[in-house]
Design goal:
CATH topology of the largest domain in chain A: Rossmann fold
CATH architecture of the largest domain in chain A: 3-Layer(aba) Sandwich
Helix content of chain A: 40-55%
Structural class of chain A: alpha/beta
Shape of chain B: globular
Oligomer: heterodimer
CATH class of the largest domain in chain A: Alpha Beta
Order of helices and strands of chain B: EHEHEHEHHEHEHEEEEHEEHEHEHH
Number of domains of chain B: 2
CATH superfamily of the largest domain in chain A: Thiamin diphosphate (ThDP)-binding fold, Pyr/PP domains
Number of domains of chain A: 2
Helix content of chain B: 25-40%
CATH superfamily of the largest domain in chain B: Thiamin diphosphate (ThDP)-binding fold, Pyr/PP domains
Largest sheet of chain B: 7 strands, mixed
Largest interface: A-B, 45 and 46 residues
Number of strands of chain B: 14
Shape of chain A: globular
CATH topology of the largest domain in chain B: Rossmann fold
Distance between the termini of chain B: 44 Å
CATH class of the largest domain in chain B: Alpha Beta
Order of helices and strands of chain A: HHEHHHEHEEEEHEHHHH
Structural class of chain B: alpha/beta
CATH architecture of the largest domain in chain B: 3-Layer(aba) Sandwich
Largest sheet of chain A: 5 strands, parallel
Strand order of the largest sheet of chain B: 3-2-4-5-7-6-12
Number of strands of chain A: 7
Mean pLDDT of chain A: 95
Low-confidence stretches of chain B: none
Radius of gyration of chain B: 19 Å
Strand content of chain A: 5-15%
Mean pLDDT of chain B: 98
Chain lengths: ~350, ~325
């Protein structure tokens, strides 16, 4: 098969973005195991799916995420500092420490956080894509979710509304075979998830989610289709979650070592690395150098975020509404009396005017 | 000023805002060409086109979920849920998503939107066209819950809700849609979402109520006055956030309190009003705080006129409170 003529530097960047995901993921898992952060939803194994597909997006496009798309946000502009602050849920966290770890967001690259409830972001992405359409904005909305989410009401209403409204959206189903401990065979009687698109009047395709270039090419086609007014589509990225659902999960309880071994051999980073080496794009030792540079950069940020202050107590009642209503100011002031008595209140935790 | 029904006032409010602000959209089931099952949105599609007033697929969680996305991307959605009884498939989108978006994102993302829905009994609609579910939603920080009872307030509160930076659940008392008429100013005006309204002055007993129970309380007050009991009626109109200071002022001034709603009593909104008064000004009370509410049963059909609190049950509570 003849490949398109890719720019060698672009290819190398692609590998670098995948490596960022792998390095960040590894470091976060270590921090969790050391008790420094609370929760990690590992992206290990899914680097090609997220980086390949999201490489096809433009800066103005939106990325609606599930648990494991933080690596794509890093590529699209989420700084390491903010990513790590959100994992620490400290006072540098743009979400003000309110979400549990790993529920990342980055407004600058149009990346809202998901809630945790499965499938709810699908109709949000559809509504936002509808807004782009009626406002005449040149935006495509990439809406990510896992295979388990295809059973949710949000999947049905999201795809149904998208089809009727012909919005500029691409639904990206990251099929990693497992919804925590439930395999696809118990999730649906139609394992070819891409065929579900047809029911909503949109084309569906499946692609090898561990082949970063295949993910990119498929997404590029569907993004161009959406941008050109061709409407929504469904893209299934077939991959595998190499680790547990989260740092709180032990996958050996429900899946075979042989299955994991099969997918280990399909590691997306090894595949693109081998390919780039065979093409002469990547020189010997380059991968290792890239990796050590990235880890050093991540470690520097970890040290900074480790020292950051927790959120001030006042944030307990902020951002519930645009203004802080009187009853919340009152509740906080009453709480503060007790907090002061027991030494929990710091300078800056002052009372609100009533 | 024009005399309008409550339904016409809401329609007028939608017209007014859509004319002024092209980012306002109205959508839901049957709201377009039909103008809604109660005809609240009549004429909007004709005037503003199918892009700004349109029918959606029959999916409440889709309607509210899409509205959230629209609000996050620069539009001002006014979504209709055909009956409040049908809102529960969207409960997750309202409670877990719209209400929590500002908080969970640290203020980075917000969902300024309105969900309009007719609530309450009085139309022989049985279990699934009659419920009064405000308490489910008033337990949700981040949401605002508004219930008008007069045409003037309906239009002014609706415009304020559409302009509000936070998601508002706008519950419309369907029993009053065509049953109440009143003077409604032309054009743009708002009724702010932070204050209750004294519907009738009085010094002996105060009745706290909202929505379709306001006229019931007014009638009971009229009858009570014939027996020499001077009732004050307070229309709460914004249930969340509640004008707590206003409630306490009226409770302290009168000293005898009846709380009235058509929803079931247990864990109903009246419990919150009672507790608020008991916690803050029990020393002013000259009689126990009394609740009048729907039964703790599903909503009946043929016996709905007995399920719904009427002026006789309210009057009975007023007399018991007064003579305690």
């Amino acid at each position: 098969m003849e490949l398109p003529a890719y720019d060698p530097q672009w290819l190398k960047d692609l590998l670098r973005y995948m490596l960022i995901v792998r390095c960040m993921d590894g470091r976060m898992m270590k921090l969790q195991r050391a008790g420094r952060i609370g929760f990690v939803g590992s992206m290990h194994g899914q680097e090609a799916a997220m980086i390949g597909a999201c490489s096809a997006l433009e800066a103005q496009d939106w990325l609606w995420s599930g648990l494991r798309e933080g690596g794509a946000a890093l590529m699209r502009g989420l700084p390491f500092s903010e990513y790590i602050a959100q994992m620490y849920c400290n006072s540098n966290d743009t979400a003000k420490g309110r979400q549990m770890c790993n529920h990342l967001q980055h407004k600058g690259s149009h990346y809202p956080s998901w809630s945790s409830v499965i499938g709810t972001q699908l109709p949000h992405g559809v509504g936002a894509a509808y807004a782009a359409k009626v406002r005449g904005l040149d935006e495509v909305h990439a809406i990510f979710f896992g295979d388990g989410a295809t059973s949710s009401s949000g999947f049905h209403s999201g795809l149904n509304f998208a089809g009727v409204w012909e919005v500029p959206a691409v639904f990206c189903c990251v099929d990693n075979g497992w919804a925590i401990s439930v395999p696809s065979s118990q999730q649906t009687a139609q394992l070819e998830y891409e065929r579900k698109g047809e029911c909503y009047g949109m084309p569906g395709y499946a692609v090898d989610g561990n082949d970063v270039l295949a993910c990119f090419e498929a997404m590029k086609t569907l993004v161009a289709r959406a941008r050109g007014g061709g409407g929504p589509s469904l893209l299934v990225l077939r991959t595998y979650r190499m680790q547990g659902h989260s740092s709180s999960d032990d996958p050996t309880r429900y899946r075979d070592a042989a299955e994991v071994e099969t997918w280990t051999k399909r590691d997306p980073l090894e595949r693109i690395t081998r390919f780039l080496e065979s093409q002469g794009v990547l020189q010997a030792g380059e991968y290792a150098r890239m990796e050590s540079e990235l880890l050093a950069e991540i470690d520097r940020e970890i040290h900074i975020q480790e020292a950051a202050a927790p959120m001030p107590l006042k944030s307990l009642v902020e951002d519930v509404y645009g203004d802080i209503p009187r009853h919340l100011r009152k509740q906080y002031n009453e709480f503060l009396g007790v907090a002061k008595r027991y030494g929990d209140a710091d300078v800056g935790d002052g009372v609100f005017p009533l | 000023m024009t005399t309008r029904t409550l339904l016409q006032a809401i329609n007028d409010g939608l017209h007014t805002v859509m004319k002024e602000d092209p980012s306002v959209l109205v959508f839901g089931e049957d709201v377009g060409v039909k103008g809604g099952v109660f005809l609240v949105t009549e004429g909007l599609q004709k005037e503003f086109g199918k892009e700004r007033c349109f029918d959606t697929p029959l999916s409440e969680d889709g309607i509210v979920g899409a509205a959230i996305g629209m609000a996050m991307n620069g539009l001002k959605p006014v979504a209709e849920i055909q009956f409040q009884d049908f809102i529960f498939p969207a409960f997750d989108q309202i409670v877990s998503e719209a209400a929590k978006l500002r908080y969970r994102s640290g203020g980075q993302y917000t969902a300024p939107m309105v969900i309009r829905t007719p609530y309450g009994g009085g139309i022989q609609g049985g279990l699934y066209h009659s419920q009064s579910g405000e308490a489910y939603f008033c337990h949700t920080p981040g949401l605002k819950v508004v219930i008008p009872s007069t045409p003037h307030d309906a239009k002014g509160l609706l415009i304020a809700s559409i302009e509000d930076p936070d998601p508002v659940l706008f519950l419309e008392p369907k029993a009053l849609y065509r049953a109440v008429k009143g003077e409604v100013p032309e054009g743009h005006y708002t009724v702010d979402l932070t204050t209750l309204r004294e519907a009738r002055p009085g010094k002996d007993v105060v009745i706290f109520c909202y929505g379709a129970m306001v006229p019931v309380a007014m009638k009971a007050a009229e009858l009570a006055s014939e027996n020499g009991i001077d009732c004050r009626v307070v229309d709460l109109r914004t249930l969340l956030p509640l004008d707590e200071e206003g409630v306490l002022e009226h409770a302290k001034a009168v000293g005898r309190v009846v709380v009235l709603h058509e929803a079931p009593r247990f864990c109903g909104y009246g419990g919150e009003i009672s507790a608020l008064i008991a916690e803050n000004c029990i020393e002013y009370m000259e009689a126990p705080i009394t609740r009048v509410a729907g039964f703790d049963t599903p909503f009946p059909n043929t016996l709905e006129h007995h399920y719904l609190p009427d002026h006789r049950r309210v009057l009975d509570a007023v007399e018991r409170t007064y003579h305690f």
